[in-house]
Design goal:
Elements lengths: L7 E4 L3 H12 L4 E5 L10 E4 L1 H9 L3 H7 L5 E6 L5 E6 L1 H8 L4 E4 H13 L4 E5 L1 E9 L2 E8 L4 E6 L2 E3 L7 H4 L7 E13 L11 E7 L2 E8 L4 E9 L9 E2 L2 H7 L5 H4 L9 E7 L11 E3 L14 H18 L4 H30 L5 H10 L3 H7 L1 H4 L4 H9 L1
Parallel strand pairs: 1-2, 1-11, 2-7, 4-13, 11-18
Antiparallel strand pairs: 3-6, 4-5, 8-9, 9-10, 12-15, 12-17, 13-14, 14-15, 16-17
Helix pairs in contact: 1-5, 1-9, 2-9, 9-10
């Protein structure tokens, strides 16, 4: 990357922002990473890294570190929440790696965030500035002027030739770029906790990802922290929304939603666990979602419901496509950003739509759930893998070019 290529500002030091900063720094760009929090910790419990995301992180050189902290489940097992009956299964583990060329990992979000943060801190081209909230952005030709509020309340002005907003669902950059729409609440909330692996019900034990389907709700669990803990997420219909991420949950709400579950799972509501809750939103991406030398990434651009476990994966994909577009147009940043947005919009829309459809299927009531269960029982694990080949088989654009040239 020539020295004259514009330096970059990345807003948000979450998974998408850190991945973006690493990829841009590896191109030789100088990157400033702004994070409004004063402590760089990561809320949430677990995250699934399907092959479309893990291949990007492996290419960044993070594979060995991730393999030490992540778990590779052997299988996805789908069951009825009320009866416990097995409905379907899909192979993961080595089958997933062999088919798609990259692992399917599950990992504690804090472990993933720490690995990315350590890699960013080791990069001489990355400067991390915490306690800095970007409140406004003004586009002036090929430059952008940022208003930055410090933790002490002072305001600073910064200028950059490339700005990437990776500041999440309630992005400050999105409305500053003219998109004043609010994320749309979809009528569901998610409750999550972690339980020591030795203390989970027998029905949730083992090296698997479990998916339990019920009327108007579902439950997901998988091992994290090298198998020492089990991450549990319960999604159910909820009136009204909780806009604060990671709010403390009421035990009574968990018990009420688990009332339809089989007895072994209902015991989760009787334990003094630290349940957290957040509401579920999405928002179709605008066209384009950036202006001049400014663009958005991840949930700031296209928040997605979690029914495909692809929120973090999409942000990692975004980072790879953005870096590739900028490598092809290192000096014409606006053109590179519009190309990135045009490339990502169809993919984001497809994942959003597929996630909504999965939610509809997961939460069916009788008699539709009986038909769903029959179809699942007749679908082989290989057929399920084939159904999601478009998702898990995604390749970063530079990999596509190499394959086409071969």
């Amino acid at each position: 990357m020539p020295d004259s290529a514009p330096s970059a500002v990345v807003v948000g030091a979450g998974i998408g922002g850190l991945t973006t900063a690493l990829l841009l720094a590896r191109q030789g760009r100088s990157v400033t990473l702004f994070e409004r929090r004063t402590a760089l910790d990561e809320a949430g419990a677990g995250i699934q890294l399907s092959p479309n995301a893990s291949r990007v992180l492996v290419a960044l050189g993070l594979g060995p570190a991730l393999a030490r902290h992540a778990v590779t489940p052997d299988e996805l097992v789908v069951r009825s929440l009320s009866s416990g009956r097995r409905l379907a299964g899909m192979p993961l583990g080595e089958t997933m790696r062999a088919r798609f060329g990259a692992p399917y990992w599950v990992i504690h979000r804090a472990d993933l965030h720490t690995l990315l943060l350590d890699a960013a801190r080791a990069e001489p081209n990355i400067r991390i500035s915490i306690g800095r909230k970007v409140t406004a952005v003004a586009v002036e030709g090929a430059r952008a002027r940022l208003s930055v509020e410090t933790a002490g309340g002072a305001t600073e002005e910064r200028e950059a030739g490339l700005v990437v907003g990776a500041d999440g669902l309630w992005s400050a950059l999105r409305p500053a770029l003219g998109d004043t729409r609010k994320p749309v609440y979809r009528g569901y909330a998610a409750w999550r906790t972690t339980v020591p692996a030795a203390e989970v019900p027998d029905e949730m034990a083992g090296n698997i990802t479990g998916l339990w389907l019920g009327r108007g709700m579902h439950l997901v669990h998988y091992p994290v922290c090298r198998g020492r803990l089990v991450n549990i997420v319960l999604v159910a219909r909820a009136e009204g929304s909780v806009n604060v991420w990671n709010s403390k949950a009421e035990q009574a709400d968990v018990a009420r939603h688990l009332a339809q579950a089989l007895p072994a799972l209902r015991t989760l509501a009787d334990r003094p666990l630290d349940w957290r809750v957040w509401s579920l939103f999405d928002l179709p991406p605008p066209r384009p979602w950036g202006r001049g030398p400014v663009t958005l990434l991840g949930d700031a651009a296209h928040p997605v419901l979690p029914f495909l476990a692809q929120g973090g994966a999409l942000a990692i994909e975004d980072a790879a496509v953005l870096a590739d577009a900028l490598a092809g147009e290192p000096h014409d940043v606006p053109s590179a950003l519009r190309a990135y947005e045009a490339a990502r919009r169809p993919r984001a829309l497809r994942v959003q739509q597929a996630a909504r459809e999965n939610g509809r299927i997961y939460h069916m009531a009788a008699p539709f759930s009986l038909v769903r269960n029959l179809v699942m029982a007749r679908t082989s694990g290989e057929a399920m893998l084939a159904r999601y080949a478009w998702l898990y088989g995604w390749q970063p654009p530079q990999h596509e070019a190499r394959r086409n040239a071969a």
